Batch of 3 targets.
Target 1
Amino acid sequence: MPALHEAEPIDDLLAGIAACRACSHVLPLGPRPVLQISPTARILVASQAPGTKVHHSGVPFADASGDRLREWMGVAREEFYDASRVAIVPMGLCYPGRKGGGDAPPRPECAPLWRARIMAQLRQLRLTLLIGSYAQVERLGRGAMTERVRAFRDHLPEVLPLPHPSWRSQVWMKRNPWFEAEVLPALRSAVREALA
Ligand code: SF4
């Protein structure tokens, strides 16, 4: 578990994030931080960055990736969007634009500004889902995503690395059938345990 900073009033933190313009000059759709937190959350979905649908709706994982992630986790939308139980915090809080045929990486300015202050609010976490390589590198250091997911048992019960649930994950799952057979049952059971 990383060291926790002193928590500030959560409303002050959320107001500061909502007003953030630190990298607005490079955000193609402008700043709109999208996250879900509360001090009682048991599960943290540590993700990458919002896509365009999420940017427009302001709701984290309100897209096909979210449908896939909820199916992987075995949770209904109501559970997923219950901030008192599930926190959702991407490495970059605003939509970063496109690069090389896909979404650009999370803005590098964002985590140093906000991540420790957000994490200081989340003191009752039992399980952190590291979605994609950016969240995995931040928590576990450098490493290959597929090998890290394959070694998921090494990090339980606190942490579970997962691929990003984008459409690309369908191709990846076909190549790595152990994910559906071994990781998803372990993920569902870890989620149930953390929420119990
Ligand atoms: S991505 Fe992060 S640092 Fe950049 S404007 Fe949004 S909240 Fe601020």
Target 2
Amino acid sequence: MRVRVDGKQCQGHGVCYMTAPDVFAPREEDGHAYVLHEEVGPELEAAARDGAEACPERAITVE
Ligand code: SF4
């Protein structure tokens, strides 16, 4: 599974990395999210989807 954060849509609310800290992390400078590993293995797919669904800006895509 591939996971991406749209840096323009992300507002840094932090819900994704609070929901799925093994998939998402905050950038130090502004708290906006990035994906720890673009390719997410099966063991973290559910967490990645939960994080994406929790994002109020719909900035995360999983495919
Ligand atoms: S929940 Fe969405 S808006 Fe908030 S930090 Fe994560 S990607 Fe950005």
Target 3
Amino acid sequence: MNVLLTSLEHKWSFTWRQPWIPAVTASKVQLCTHPPKPVIPSKKPFKVELIGGKRYSWCTCGYSKKQPFCDGSHKTKAQGLSPLRFVPEKDATVWLCGCKYTNNPPYCDGTHKQDFIVSAPLHEPTDS
Ligand code: FES
């Protein structure tokens, strides 16, 4: 088959395109493989008392109304982002990141003090 296609390509100079994309719009299609960026629900961390052995889901998209935990909003508002699930070994009071840009998720690492967070808009939750 490949030999046949190669032979035909040379003879008639085929232009291959995906058949489900009309030629008129094909040049306007942009594919993005990057996950969406989270919105910033808080510019401060959340002080939380965790229970050892309990499973938690930390919101990574910022759209959850149950911050800092996931309420499933990523499924409709930030497809490509998933909550970070974790189980603390023992009871502990911790600071969970509220800005969603920590480099040590789910814990605050002080990133919220950087200019790109301080100057960024705060996400206001909506009812939809
Ligand atoms: S709240 Fe995100 S790093 Fe502190």
